[in-house]
């Protein structure tokens, strides 16, 4: 049979429980704008009968109040797993799309500011030369436009090389951040284990753990799984980067010097597991994977295509130029050279004297023939088509990468929305929770007041006759 003092105990448990509920709701509201914060929820449970019945005692089923059963973080491990995967893919595509967009802007096509415009100007001056082969100013303009074409090619090469330099620096910075995060995550794993062993709430540590794992996925596309001690173990490229309270590291074995310059070797990354030896890793995603792909495939391929165009242009123009004769009637010499190592390369103008332009198709002495200048203009058509194909192919690659990034963004946004719906703080919901707890607290306090009055009557007034 439940006694009066048991009711006091039940009311006291209600006061304590609802105080915890209000404290937790207040904490949720305070962290509404905190990145990585997962809202907490108090799970209450009824204080019922003892686990083992006594021989001469029987539980009456009225209950003995309420207590905090658990303080749960509102997270879903499956959603977290999906989020890390989608964020790794998103970062990989975004890194590539941003780099290609910068290269596309530098091409100046079809705005009339790039190589196509330089070819058109060079061709127009050659047509003028065919009509006025004996005019010095026209010959000078041809050489100026030829140099302008070489400069336009050089600008594109410098744009590509500058982007490669930026990606190398970004790669080094991202690797440093990855290694620092791996150490921090290992330390957090150890702190989580210590908190659990001591019975301390580890919610804040778990928030930090999940945030670091998500950032590691952004950087490397690495996968994370929870170990038996509450921490997360991270694997990158098939190599353990974080195992419990131990951290490995990622390094650049070759391809990029510590100062961010190219060292002349192929780009190779290695991952070292805790207590292990360096292992070459490939197929990374995330920002680092995007940077590696740009440095090993995309940008070198574009640079090779540009050099191939320069070689085709030089071969075509030189063949036509060497078939003609200069102002003195001497056979023409190569007009362009291709030297990837030249400061102004890869296309280099070899002729500096306007009179050395082989505009004439008739040799043997000075004449006013401009027939070979027409052939020179015609020789530009093949390289021009090749360059347009190069630009078109690059444009298709840029558009495809953008489309992939946009499609991936839909998936990333979807999983982020699901996580936010579960883990994010809803102010309206928290206010309702606080109001419910407040009213419950007031009701429990009223019960205490009533019981106090009852006890006062029983203790101080029983037997009194007025």
What does this structure look like?
The protein has 466 residues and is α+β, with helices and mostly antiparallel strands. The protein has 3 domains: 4-51 and 61-74 and 427-462, no CATH class; 104-159 and 307-418; 160-295, no CATH class. It has 9 helices and 11 strands. A 4-stranded antiparallel β-sheet has the order 3-4-5-6. Strands 7-8-9 form a 3-stranded antiparallel β-sheet. A hairpin with an 8-residue loop joins strand 10 (336-338) and strand 11. Helix 5 packs parallel to helix 6 (286-322) and helix 6 (286-322) runs antiparallel to helix 8 (381-423). It is elongated and about 150 Å long. The two termini are 32 Å apart. The mean pLDDT is 92. GO terms for molecular function: structural molecule activity. This is Flagellar hook-associated protein 1. Belongs to the flagella basal body rod proteins family. Residues 423-460 form the Flagellar basal-body/hook protein C-terminal domain. Keywords: Bacterial flagellum, Cell projection, Cilium, Flagellum, Secreted.
Can you tell me the overall shape?
elongated
Which regions are unreliable across 5 or more consecutive residues at pLDDT < 50?
none
Radius of gyration, CA atoms, in whole angstroms: 38 Å
Task: Work out the helicity level.
Answer: 55-70%
């Amino acid at each position: 049979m439940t006694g009066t003092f048991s009711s006091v105990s039940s009311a006291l448990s209600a006061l304590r429980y609802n105080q915890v509920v209000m404290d937790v709701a207040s904490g949720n509201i305070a962290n509404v704008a905190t990145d990585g914060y997962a809202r907490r929820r108090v799970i209450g449970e009824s204080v019922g009968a003892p686990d083992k019945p006594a021989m001469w005692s029987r539980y009456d089923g009225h209950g003995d109040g309420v207590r905090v059963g658990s303080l749960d973080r509102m997270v879903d491990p499956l959603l977290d797993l999906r989020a890390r995967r989608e964020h790794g893919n998103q970062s990989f595509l975004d890194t590539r799309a941003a780099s290609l967009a910068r290269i596309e802007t530098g091409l100046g096509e079809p705005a009339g500011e790039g190589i196509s415009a330089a070819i058109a100007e060079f061709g127009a001056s050659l047509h003028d030369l065919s009509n006025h082969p004996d005019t010095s100013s026209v010959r000078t303009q041809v050489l100026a436009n030829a140099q302008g074409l070489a400069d336009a090619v050089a600008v594109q090469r410098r744009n590509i090389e500058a982007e490669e330099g930026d990606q190398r620096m970004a790669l080094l910075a991202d690797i440093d951040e990855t290694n620092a995060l791996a150490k921090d995550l290992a330390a957090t794993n150890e702190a989580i284990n210590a908190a659990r062993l001591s019975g301390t709430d580890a919610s804040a540590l778990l928030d930090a753990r999940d945030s670091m794992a998500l950032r590691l996925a952004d950087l490397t596309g690495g996968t994370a799984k929870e170990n038996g001690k509450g921490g997360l173990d991270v694997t990158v490229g098939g190599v353990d980067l974080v195992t419990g309270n131990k951290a490995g590291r990622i390094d650049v074995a070759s391809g990029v010097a510590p100062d961010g310059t190219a060292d002349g070797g192929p780009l190779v990354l290695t991952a070292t597991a805790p207590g292990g030896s360096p292992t070459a890793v490939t197929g990374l995603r995330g920002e680092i994977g995007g940077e590696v792909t740009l440095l090993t495939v995309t940008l070198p391929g574009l640079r090779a295509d540009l050099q191939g165009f320069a070689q085709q242009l030089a071969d075509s123009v030189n063949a036509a130029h060497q078939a003609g004769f200069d102002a003195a009637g001497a056979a023409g010499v190569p007009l362009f050279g291709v030297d990837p190592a030249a400061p102004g390369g890869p296309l280099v103008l070899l002729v500096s004297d306007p009179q050395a332009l082989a505009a004439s198709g008739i040799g043997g002495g000075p004449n006013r023939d401009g027939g070979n200048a027409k052939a020179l203009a015609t020789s530009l058509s093949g390289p021009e088509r090749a360059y347009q194909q190069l630009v078109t192919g690059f444009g298709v690659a840029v558009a495809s990468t953008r489309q992939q990034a946009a499609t991936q963004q839909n998936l990333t946004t979807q999983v982020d929305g699901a996580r936010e719906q579960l883990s994010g703080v809803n102010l309206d919901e928290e206010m309702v929770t606080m109001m419910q707890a407040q009213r419950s607290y007031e009701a429990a306090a009223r019960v205490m007041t009533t019981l106090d009055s009852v006890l006062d009557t029983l203790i101080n007034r029983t037997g009194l006759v007025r």
